[in-house]
Amino acid sequence: MKILGIDTSTKYLSVAVTKNGKLLGEYSQDCAQAHSLHLVPVIKKLLNKIKLQLKDMDALCISIGPGSFTGLRIGASTVKGLAVAAKKPIVPVPTLDVIAKNAMHHSGKVCVILDARKQQVYACLYDIRQGKSKRASKYMLLKIDDLLKKLKGEILLLGDAIAVYRQEIEKDKKIKPLFADEALWYPDPYWVCVMGQEMLKKGKKVSAQDLVPMYIYAKTCTITKPVTRNQ
């Protein structure tokens, strides 16, 4: 089974292709806010390098969020177009679950935290034992202080919010934080492929029409209807 995995949920643009769980090729680069310019060319370049075409893929898997609203929107719209053109199923994979896979070497409690701006983070707790990860909380959007209230004891933290809130975390006396290396803070497209393949086997796929990024809104966020102006 050949899988194309894509992630645009953070500042990195990452793409990988696997065959039955074996990595055939990957690409990852800090693209800041230029995902829309590079995503399709990168996919074409990677497929050419490994001498495969989009039609050879069994599914297109995408890291679906939470994360950068702009990045998620670009990734989703691109995957929708490719899936329709190639008549392939889409498998959406939660971004925080993908990042947690970077900690499979660890045994114990893990917390993935991504910076959501305005003193808030996207977060999820996991328990990793014997190379298996189990989600131990909901996907959350909350203030860093509120997240710290949920943590205690030794816990491995990974995600780009570490760079923003490390001092606050270290000041919390009830936590014994372990900080993952920066190389493990971001989604690995290999895991997008591997997790996506497992989900595909379980029938967890969507059509292009039904693909929706995982946006998590603050409880205080108010979304209003657009104003219609008379011409």
Descriptive overview:
The chain is an alpha/beta fold and 231 residues long. Helix content is 29%, strand content 30%. It contains six helices and eleven strands. The strands form two sheets. Strands 6, 7, 8, 9, 10 and 11 form a six-stranded mixed β-sheet that branches. A five-stranded mixed β-sheet has the order 3-2-1-4-5, with helices on both faces. The N and C termini lie far apart (54 Å). Mean pLDDT is 92; it is low at 220-231.
CATH class type of the largest domain = Alpha Beta
- Helical segment count: 6
Tell me what the CATH architecture of the largest domain is: 2-Layer Sandwich
CATH topology of the largest domain: Nucleotidyltransferase, domain 5
| Full CATH superfamily name of the largest domain | ATPase, nucleotide binding domain
Major β-sheet annotation: 6 strands, mixed
What is the distance, rounded to the nearest whole angstrom, between the alpha carbons of the first and last residues?
Answer: 54 Å
Number of strands: 11
Radius of gyration: 18 Å
Helicity level, as a percent range?
Answer: 25-40%
Shape: globular
Structural class: alpha/beta
Any low-confidence stretches, pLDDT <50, length ≥5? 220-231
What series of H and E elements makes up the topology?
A: EEEHEHEHEEEEHEHEH
